[in-house]
Amino acid sequence: MDEPVLVTRPEPGITVVTLNRPERLNALTNEMLELLLGILGEIERDPQCRAVILTGAGRGFCGGLDLQANAQAISQVGDRVEDSVAWAERFGALAPALRNLRQPVVAAVNGPAAGGGLVLALAADIRVASSDALFLNGFINTGASGCELGLSYLLPRQIGMARAMELALTGRPIDAGEAERIGLVASVTASDVVEAAAVVARRILEATAFGAELTKSLMWAGMASASLEATVDLEARSQVLALMTPEAAEKRAAFTGQLAARRRDVDGSGDGLPGI
């Protein structure tokens, strides 16, 4: 029997995590949850991994929580409050685990992303969608609240409160074209979406590892910052740290050399180089 979550390393620096229950649109089970949390922990500790691609097998990204496979746990909600809370909190750990991963995560959304699957996509740092992608806040359609697993935090920060409120309250699906128009995804492709995500990941690898990690953490911190001044202070201190690494010195030398070459092509001198 195939593993419900697959990990591959198709090229140096890039790890691909594939939800692998295509017959159920990769809907999440307790087993998948534990596997995925464990895999993310291993990736966090992997010094060779610089970027992560998250995708689904078959024609779906993730159909959310598998109601059939988790029927017993769902039916017991309310029997023992402490058990219900523990179960909910365990599933609730997934989005923070993705967002807090030091490596940037690119979601390659290859099909429907519903409920918890939508939240998984939102917790990624960048989303690339196939033209077959579909995004659905399925929670509200099952009699539950329209907000779960971090959706009320993540969705308004991606597309604004007005659009997020409408999607949370109506459970209306949106296709890839609309998702791109409202800023939910960075791009849409009609070809291989994992390869499109790999193109993004390769661009990330052009930065230093520490620089990319700091950029990810600072962008998320800036979204939650209380003030511009606090954000500027944090960025300034982080910039000092980033520029102290040997890799950063190599990047600066290469960048300066490229600028000098361009300047010589224009007027024959290597002087008067602009800044960053």
Description:
The protein has 276 residues and is of the alpha/beta class. It folds into two domains: 5-205, 2-enoyl-CoA Hydratase, Chain A, domain 1 (Alpha-Beta Complex), CATH 3.90.226.10; 209-267. The protein is 50% helix and 14% strand. It is built from twelve helices and nine strands. The chain has helices at 30-44, 71-75, 81-92, 94-100, 116-123, 151-159, 161-170, 176-181, 193-205, 209-224, 228-243, 246-267; strands spanning 5-11, 14-19, 51-56, 105-109, 112-114, 126-130, 134-136, 174-175, 187-189. The strands form two sheets. A six-stranded mixed beta sheet has the order 1-2-3-4-6-9, with helices on both faces. The protein has a three-stranded mixed beta sheet with strand order 5-7-8. Helix 6 packs across helix 7. The N and C termini lie far apart (52 Å).
First-residue to last-residue Cα separation: 52 Å
Shape: globular
Q: Report the biggest beta sheet as strand number plus sense, adding barrel if it closes.
A: 6 strands, mixed
Broad structural category:
alpha/beta
- SSE succession: EEHEHHHEEHEEHHEHEHHHH
* Major beta sheet, strand line-up: 1-2-3-4-6-9
Individual helix count: 12
Radius of gyration, taken over Cα atoms and rounded to an integer in Å: 21 Å
The total of beta strands comes to 9
Poorly predicted parts: none
- Determine the strand fraction and express it as a percent band: 5-15%
How many domains? The number is: 2
Mean pLDDT: 87
CATH architecture of the largest domain: Alpha-Beta Complex
- What is the CATH fold-level name of the largest domain? 2-enoyl-CoA Hydratase, Chain A, domain 1
